[in-house]
Each structure stands twice: as C-alpha cells, then as structure tokens.
Queue: 3 jobs
Job 1
Amino acid sequence: MGQREDAIIRAGDGSGLTARRFIVDPAAVLIWNDAQSDGTHMIYWFTGQPGAGKTTLAVALVGELKRRGQPSVHLDGDVLRAVTDNHDFSTAGRIKNVKAAQALAAKVHSDDVWVVAAFVSPFRQLREEFKKRGDVREVYVHTIATRGRENYHVKDYEPPVENFVDVDTTNTSVEECIKKILAT
C-alpha cells in the first residue's frame, strides 16, 4: 500500500457547508465503491490544460447544482496538491495525484453527492478507466486564448477522443458552458 494522505473537502447540500475528512491512499486505484449510480447524481471530471477554465466552470456548476438543491462538492487539483503537499509533477507524481483524486471523487460520490472535479489529468488512459464506472462524465475544457498559465501547460497532455463533453471557453460565456454541460 502507498502512503496514506489526509484530504479535507467541503461539501454543501444547499443549507450550508460541512467539513468531511477522508483518508486517501493514492496507490489504491480501486478503492471506490463499485456500485453504479442510480442516475440521480454524477461525477463531472473536468480536464484540460491550466488556464482553460476548468476551475471557473467547476465552481459555476457546483453553484448551479446547489441552486437546484443537489448536494455537491468541488474537488480541485491545486487544492488537493496543497492539502496533500504533493509537488511532484513528474509522470509518476501526476499519476499518483489523479488516482488519489479519482478515489476521493468516487468515495464522495458513493455518499450520494454530486462531484465536480477539476484536474489537468493529462493521461487519457486514467480518465478512460475511470469513465468505465458509468457515472462519470468527462468534460474537456480548452481555449486558444492566452490567460497567463501557459508556462504550466503539460507537454504530454492527451486530449479525450470519445465519450466526452467538448467545451471551448475561448468565446463562450460561463453560463453557456454550464448549459452545454448539463444538457449532455
């Protein structure tokens, strides 16, 4: 087993925030509950290069879900790295971080919570394996606009090729993006 790491997230049910604490083992790829969703809640997995708008859209989507009375939580790559003190951006470090995020998302989701996760998650195979759960919607966020995060781009990022929502934030409002995500 790998090193266990504490992760603290905040989940809201529309009535206020409550703190939940989970122990995440990044080496455990399959610690999630294998039970499939009953279709009433999803994991939205936002992927794309830094600066594309993943976090902006994730925050907006959580806001919309809460407005609709849905318990939801936003998991963010930068926050998870800070909480777990993981500054390893090597291939192995990125894989470890994505697997930890997927395990955490699956655990929270198993508690009947909508999960909106925003991670670069550059490796297609990890995302494809996670989507096999059946209750994960991959949202590929990209732009051609210069937003000041280009020096953090991942050279070996692998865009999705099937079964994803394509969101180009270049000239599209946040509201339009959220409508597209929820319509698919």
Job 2
Amino acid sequence: MLLHGEQFLEIKKYPIPTSATLVTEARVIDILDKGKAASVTIGTTTKDKATGEVIFENQATVFIRGSGGFGGPSKGADRGAATATNTPPKRAPDAVMEERTSEDQAALYRLSGDRNPLHIDPEFSKVGGFPTPILHGLCFFGISGKHIYQKYGPFKNIKVRFAGTVLPGETLVTEMWKEGNKVIFQTKVKERNAIAITAAAAELTSGEVKPASKPATSNGAGDIEVPGFGASKVFAQAKAQLDTLSPQDKAAKLKKANGVFQFDVTNDAGKTESWTIDAKNEGSIKRGKAGKADVTIIIKDSDLVNLATGKGSAQSLFMRYFKSLRNWANCSGKLKVKGNMMKAVSIGDLLAPPKAKV
C-alpha cells in the first residue's frame, strides 16, 4: 500500500503558461527506512520543450507500507523549504477559508491521470484500512493552495504534509498565518474537526503583504470575499486570474466583455451583497455597487455559483424563472437582468475557471 506523505512545489515561471508542450524528468532524492515502511522522495523537473525553460520543480514523498526494515538511514538531509517544519504561531489565524468538496470529487480528480484505485474502488480502499475511497492528497492540497492564492496572491513555492484523510463531500477549512513573506497554514476537515494538512507553508512571490483585512461594507472597498456567499469566491477567483495575466492578455480579455457589470446577489439567508466587474474603464473586479452599470444582474447566490462552474446556464435560468421576458421587472424569478441583456452573455469568460492547454 502506497500513501502520499508530503509534497513540495516550486513555481519557476510567472505567469504560468496556459499552453506549451511540457517535458518532465524524474530523479530519486531520498530512500529512508522508517521501520514498518519505506519513505521514498522523488524529484521532478518540468520544462517547456520548445525553450528548455524550467516551469516547475516538484518533490513528492510517499510511504510504502511493509517495505521498511532494510537497514537504510531513517532521517534525510535538510532540503530547505521542502523539509521545513512550519509550526503555526500560537495565535488565532490571520485568515480562514472553507470550501466543500463534491461527492464525486475523487472521481473527477482521476481525470488528472492519478488512477490509484484507493480513491475509487471501495474494496481496494478497505484493504488499506479505509471504509470508503478517500480523496487524493494532491486534490485537497490544490484547494488549500487556491485559498492562499485568493487571500495573499501568487506564491513561488508551497510545501505540505498529509496528516489525515478527506472523504469526497467533506468541507475543507484552511487556516492561515502570515509570517513575513511566508504563509504558514493547516487544513482541517470541518465535519470531523480532523487535521488533513500540517507542517505547511507557502512563500509569496512579492514582498511584505499584509493579512487580508475584514470585509468592508458594500461600497466597493475592502475584501472581495463575504462569509455566507459562495459567489464571493467566484469573484475572488476571477480577480486572481485576471491579476496574473500579462497587460496584453488582460486587455484582450477585458475587451471581449467591454462593459460595467453589477451583480446583486442574495444568499439563502436572504442577505444581499453586490459586486462589480468593470471591464470598460478600470479593468477591475471589486465588492460593491457600480457608479453607472451597463448591466445589472440580480441573481441567487447558488445560481451564480452554478453558472460560473458550468453546472447551469443563463438560458435555463431565464426559462425556469421568467414568466415574461418582456416585463421581467414584474417577475418573481431568481435571475433578472437590467440594461443591455445581450452584453450580459459576454461576462461568462471572466467568471469561468481557466482552461489550460498543455
């Protein structure tokens, strides 16, 4: 039985190319005797085939049960950030984000090429001592990394230790502490209050970055994310993606939308928040109402999340909730559009997750 123990990723090139032919070369870094198991660390270097430029460096440590006791060393060398202990400070986290995984998360993640039956076959997972298939470590590692990116921006390296399991459908809570240019973090499973990731940290690419402030009132200032609104994560992700683009790529993406879009979003508790995407003047995504919007979209929080993640379509929402498109203001529907309705369809590219070509 092979279990993923630790992972270290160093991003050598920003912005990360969205299209390239990549070549990855692997090497053995360490083989340690842990008694009942062997610890094996593999390093990989990923390059752009056309230029030879290094894009990523990875170090993955796996534990192979039943393969220890061969008399090798039990402790490896210090490899800097890849082996740092990263103990959280003794204070409340500077930032906390949570995200629920989907019931089919492990099945979807298999599309990345990791077909370990531990994550899909109930009988195989029982052999490993798990009553049901567990989620891939790299999957919830990626979700935690996304949380750091959304709160603090790009990082040049990130290291984690997998300390527990996550079941598809459980909620991940990432607790973050800002220490200089490093974000120390740990990730828990909310439903079981169990640690999933520990001894973890990301080193930011920029200089000193202050911890994210508490959300301001809806006046366009302050943090984009608002507790209780899944839509706020959609806008935060869209802003993060936009900020990593080159000036040329950013201008091209904004030109496609070329408008000021205000979203008035109501959550299940009946609370309403607003966000504005200005793809015409400022090239910004922020919390708050627009001064003058070309389009105002009034929508339920869960519907906006579904639209952004491809689980719903604007057309289906219109058809379900509108009795009359000619007199939409009198409708009691969940999706309404004021202003240039045709322009509203152009905003999808800014809210959709990126599709990388590799």
Job 3
Amino acid sequence: MKRRLLFTQKCRRLFALSILIISFIGGCSQRSSDPLEHFAGEPAFKTAMSFYDKAAFDSAAYHFNILTSKHPNDPFAWAWLAKAVSYDGDPDTCLAYVRKALSLDPRNALALVLYANCYNPQFRSVRGANYDTTWHWLQKAVESDPNNGDAWIGIYIEAMRRGDIAYMRTALSRLKESGFLTPSVLELNRWMLRNLPPDAILITSGDMDTFPSEALQLLENARPDVAIVNWSMLNMPWYAGAIAKRYNLLLPIPADSLENYWNDIHAFSRMTSIPVLLLNPKHKAHAEDAYASCSISEEDRIANEMLIPSVGIIQWWLIQNRLGGLKRQVVFSALCASDLVNFGPSIVRPVIDCGAYRRTASTSDTLPDWEAMRRSFLDADGRRFVGKAVAKSDLSAYRRCLPEDFAGAIPYAAGKRYVDYLRAKIDTGTMNTDEQKKLQHDVDLITTKLEQFALAAGLNASIRRK
C-alpha cells in the first residue's frame, strides 16, 4: 500500500511538471515570429526601438541588453542586440551575440542575415570574411523567412557581384511582391525614370532610389537605356567593374586596375588628367579655379591624399561628356541632394533642378530647368504617391529614420518651386494676354497636382494653401 502511495505521488509530480513544461512551451510559441511583433507590449523592447529608430545605437544596445537579461533564452533578444551593435560596434562582438541567438534558434532569420553581414568583406567584418560565406548564410536566411527584405537586398548585391542577372531578378521580384519595395516609392522611381534624358547615366543616392529603380528596369523593362549607378557602391572596385560591363560604360581606368589607385589621389589624377582639386570635395577651391594654384591648409592637404573613388569616376564621366568623349548625359536622382552638397565645389558645373531629377548646368547659371520641370509635373499623378515609403517589415534603422511620406514630399517641394516661378513671371506684367493665359493654365493644372502631392506627403490643409 505504501509503495502504491509513493508511486501515485511520483506520478502526480511528473504530471504537474509536464503541465508546467507544456505551458512554458505554449507560452513561447504564442510569441510572434515577426521580429517587430515578437516582444509586443514589452517595455524594454519598446524603449530600445525608440532609440533604434532614431539611429541612437548605443542607447538602443543598452536597452536591448536589458532585454537579454530579462529573456536570456529568447533568440530574438540576442538578435536585436546584435543588430544594434552591428551599426556602431565591433563585428566580433556582434558575431558573439549572433551566435548566441543561433544557438537558441538556428533558423532565426534576423540572426542569419547578421551572420552573413559579419562575414561580408564589404562591411566591417570579422577575420576570415569572404563572399562565399556571406552568400551561404543569406540563402539560409531566405529559406527560413522568404519575405526577409534585408536578406533579399544582400542576395541582390551578391548576385550582382557574381554577374547572375537571373538571381538579381529573383531577389528584386521578392522585394516587390512582398511589399518591401512599397508602391509609393516604386511610383516615385517610375516618375523619375520616365522623365530622364535618353541613354542617361543616373546616379542614385541610396536604397530608396537604387533598388526600386533597378526593380522597375529589370522586372518591368522600364527605361532599359538608362544606366543606374549607386553613388556609394561606386566606391567598390568590383561594383564599378560590374556596372561598366552591364551598361557598357567607360571607366577612367580599366576595372581590374581600379583598386591600385584608390589610396593615391595623385596617381589617379596623373592617369586621368583630372586636377586633384576636382577629385575631392574637401578642397575649398571653386571649380573655375581648379586649374590654377590654390593655397590649402596642411589638414586639407593630408585629407586629400585619399581618393574618393566615386567622385573620381563621376567627375571623369562629367568631363568626358562635356568634351564629347561620352555621349551619355550624367544626371542625379532627386534624392541626391545631400550628396551633391558634399560633392560641393569640386563638381565641374552647378547642379540644377529638373523636377524628377537633377543635372549639371551647361553654363554657370544655377536656375532650375523650368521646361523639364513642367514636363515632369504634367506627366505626374500625385494620387499614386500616397502611402508609407518604408515597409512595416523593414528592419533597417536608417530606412526607418526616413519620413513616412517622403515619396510625395519630394515632388511636392519641386512642384511648389515651379508654381512660385510661374506666378512671379505672370506678376511681372510683361507678357501679352495669350502668354498669360497659357501660364495661368499651367499654374491651375499643376496646383491641382500639388494638392495631390501634398496629400501624399501628409501635409495639412494650411500648408497646402500657402
């Protein structure tokens, strides 16, 4: 009887323990597999993300670290900590957190993408970094989560490096179909491509004008005559070579020799006959004085020993176009404004506004190209720019920092400048009646479109009426 009682008590304990284990597993399984929803309602996660979305990575990492202390066995806590550290921190530290996450869940897509990035020679990477390892772990990431936008962007770039156009299309197709490339951003890029000059070389600024325009070109055959070139990626020799081959572009130096000149601005200057003053925006001289001697500080002199490769190539294209050696016009994305400011006085001519894009002026005149702006806005439908520019699923801190409705804000700002110009022209009173009627018709038509862009940009009624 005593044995039976002991056996019964043991069974009850085992049953109670099994109930606890099942409850724990059930509680874990109830958490979402979406990285942004997994810790929904968790104050520490909410605080960490508030800093992360402002690109305040030290503060974000501090609060993600608190999250790992509260949830030491949750792979997402470690993966988010690694994500914050990846922007500012030591890649070895990031990799340690990634490995911790993967030890808890080998299929955690957020951690898998970070693992791939840790071994990517393109970034600040760990010892032993190589593209094959990056490729392997990016493949693992999309196997785990077929809608992971960061993984598909990585795959697209690596497929480009490998010259695999078919896989580039696959990656862009997944980005578009999943909504990672949002409808409003696609429309912004569609508008930009539609208005470019024939056979243009389009210099893009970042993710929001590179991947969407590439997707439209490769998936919709939009403007196959245009060469799409990302400004920052042009600093990588493999990318410069790949772009030159894909679009049949001339380079100042053969692609396989470009890397030899990256650390020597003077050698590049001698090879291309481009004055050093035109190759680095840190020089304070104006373009008109570039061929003359210029006194610069010792600090500037040392800084300018390093060539910025993208500046060298773009400058060479601009000069060759002006001399007639390059028939393709170099134009800049409407999103390139800050980059052009940094490019500053070293550019050959001022950059002027054309509405959907920017180009260098044929003279020293800095006025916008009003006729190009008119064509851009007569061609646009502001209602198609409505919607958030950044996908909800986007995990990039830098993209998440962007204004939600910037797809409508960019054409609105340019359109407002054009309408103000037309009104000022009418107010001069120097035109005949027919000319005034024509301009007033344009004002009325484009003002209606501005209202659409303003709504797309989320501007309130009082701003729109100004």
